[in-house]
Amino acid sequence: MNFLFEFVISSLIVLGGIFVLVGSIGLIKLPDLMTRLHAPTKATTLGLGGALGASMLYFLWGEGTLSIHEVLISVFLFLTAPVTAHFIAKAHLHLNRDTIRQELSPTGRDHGWSTFDTVPKEAAEAGKAIDQPRG
Amino acid sequence: MTVAGKRIKDERSFMQRWLPHPLLSVVLVLVWMLLLNSFTMGGLVMGMLLGIVIPIITSSFWPERPPIRAYGRAFAFMVLVARDVVVANIHVARLILFKPADQLRTRWVTVPLELTSPEAITVLAGTITMTPGTVSSDLSADGRSLLVHCLDAPDAEEAVLEMKTRYETRLKRIFP
To answer: Where in chain A are the domains?
Structure first.
């Protein structure tokens, strides 16, 4: 192992660590749930990316094997992080439904947000874009 | 297949019944092989089994094939999003570290949608969550606008316009 190799991998790990740390600081510092949600969905992604990149480089360079697990982990992360964030946001809307309704921006449509309003019958029939098979 | 207790004839073709999502099957086999990290015949058979069984089990949630038209554009979109995720990370990290919490202009904004297919809206909502200072939180009851929470948006209209031009116009070309 030469110096350059070790330097690149260690800096990736340190960089990743810094981003994870910043994400955690954000969780403490930011004032409410919705703003706190921003920290783990973003700052942590790059943190993990740094660690996974370092792991890939280590196996590629040091042992000469291409390790694909890291790519899969980041793909799964990209798939699950937004869904989790969306569910937390939805739960937040449900829990604070009486106070938060006034804060939300208007939909700009005839109907409210789906957390509070049911799907309008005519839209369900006419649109058929959501839930119904296209065809 | 039974509807309201009455047995009706299954009109799906052989392909629709046993291989509802051929592309999903291929992806599942590929992911399984990559998870194993080494090539064995037994692993391939197991992967193919999963690639056939999982789409059949989940096909009732997802009856249609995803209406992707341009795979090249879809790949270019993924590269753009990956780049934006890195920018988003640095942007949010800077906000967290250097901006006092009471100076953040957090707000809810509404993004009117031109996309109609559920898959396209899902991809757009996921992209918005992963990129700078925005988390998508809800859909209007008729599914035509998206509720987005911004961490720091001095100008609501500008934020909406950026999301629409940057991601939605591209997605419109990928999904018809």
So the answer is: 3-79
**By the 8 A CB rule, do B146 and B129 touch?**
no
B121: helix, coil or strand?
Answer: helix
Q: Minimal Cα distance from B83: which residue of A?
A: A46
Residues A96-133: pLDDT tens digits? 877 777 777 777 777 778 777 776 666 555 554 444 44
How many whole angstroms separate alpha carbon B167 and alpha carbon A2? Answer: 43
The pTM is what? 0.78
Put simply, the answer to whether B139 touches A114 (Cβ < 8 Å) is yes
Q: How far apart are CA A74 and CA B82, in angstroms?
A: 11
B115 membership: H or E segment, kind and range: none
Cα-based distances in Å from A15 to A51, A53, A54, A55, B4: 8, 11, 10, 13, 58
Which of A29, A108, A112 shows the shortest C-beta gap to B112? A108
